[in-house]
Amino acid sequence: MTSTTSLFSPVEADLCILMENLKSLIGARHPVLYAAAEHLFGAKGKRVRPAIVLLVSRATLVDQEITLRHRRLAEITEMIHTASLVHDDVVDEAELRRGVPTVHSSFGNRIAVLAGDFLFAQSSWYLANLDNLEVVKLLSQVIMDLAEGEIQQGLNRFATNLSIEQYLEKSYYKTASLIANSSKAAAVLSEATPELIEHMYGYGRHIGLAFQIIDDILDFTGSTEALGKPAGSDLKSGNLTAPVLYALEEKQFLETLIEREFAQPGDLEQAIALVKDGQGIERSRELAMYHTRTAIDHLAVLPPSASRQALIKLGDYVLSRLY
């Protein structure tokens, strides 16, 4: 199985610069917010999103060095992602993220909400300073999409009539929008052709959806240790994902368990067993494979390079997390 370290070797040096810059961008003016941010950026994250931005930047600028604006875009992408995680953890009342205590469990809800707001505001300020209106619009849309995804998820808790299409739309807002629009923005900064820019958006959109579907499968098949949070936590909170929605088509009693919100002892364990027993996980795997293949197809327009190859291999890595 490919590790992200070897996968991102074309941008390994770029990612080291990114980590140093992120800490200095947040600044030490607010000690508690700085401590919260350092806590986040010090966590064992894979930095997949900024790595994709840097790889797209290099793949669309073959034989040229990436600019400081490309680097800043990657930093902004990680700041937006981190801000959304902080707020997600407050909403979900999650105690762990990537196996370490969440900001709100370490610093309290008030500081966590403010730390998330602070990171969103900082990212917006640095975004405006890129001085590229199209890029500003793309990343501003992401911030709106993240909120839209959270609202949709909140309104559809324990909703057994949710369709796969609605699930994918919410997954786009919550996960794929950031990868899609930041990939597109990287190509815009490279002054790529309109066709190439759209293909980079397509790559980000489909790889982002595959990521989310696989995360949702791992919520049933992964260990608590590997997930960094308790297995089955999405289902417990009423967030119905692809494996559950597919299982609902064949396991009628699952609907009863979900609609009574696992009120009786053993309900949650029974629901997880029903999901694992049916075709839901396998059908979700097929859905993830479709989106991964579609993402890779969008890379055909790029000239050969180590960065293009890494973007292709990322698709293999995404799927390898299933096995």
Give descriptors for this structure.
323 residues; two-stranded antiparallel sheet; Farnesyl Diphosphate Synthase; 1% strand; mainly alpha; 2 strands
In words, what does this structure look like?
By secondary structure, this protein is mainly alpha-helical. The chain has one domain (4-320): Farnesyl Diphosphate Synthase (Orthogonal Bundle), CATH 1.10.600.10. Helices cover 73% and strands 1% of the residues. The protein has a two-stranded antiparallel ribbon with strand order 1-2. Helix 4 (48-59) packs antiparallel against helix 5. The N and C termini lie close together (9 Å).
Shape: globular
| Helix-strand category | mainly alpha
Strand order of the largest sheet: 1-2
Q: Do you know the CATH topology?
A: Farnesyl Diphosphate Synthase
Number of strands: 2
Q: How much of the residues is beta strand, in percent?
A: under 5%
C-alpha Rg (nearest Å): 20 Å
Could you give a short account of the major beta sheet? 2 strands, antiparallel
Topology:
Layout: H1 4-7, H2 12-26, H3 31-41, H4 48-59, H5 68-92, E1 96-97, E2 100-101, H6 103-107, H7 109-128, H8 133-155, H9 164-189, H10 194-221, H11 224-227, H12 233-236, H13 242-248, H14 252-259, H15 267-277, H16 280-297, H17 306-320
Helix pairs in contact: 2-3, 2-5, 3-7, 4-5, 4-9, 4-17, 5-7, 5-8, 5-9, 7-8, 8-9, 9-10, 10-16, 13-16, 16-17
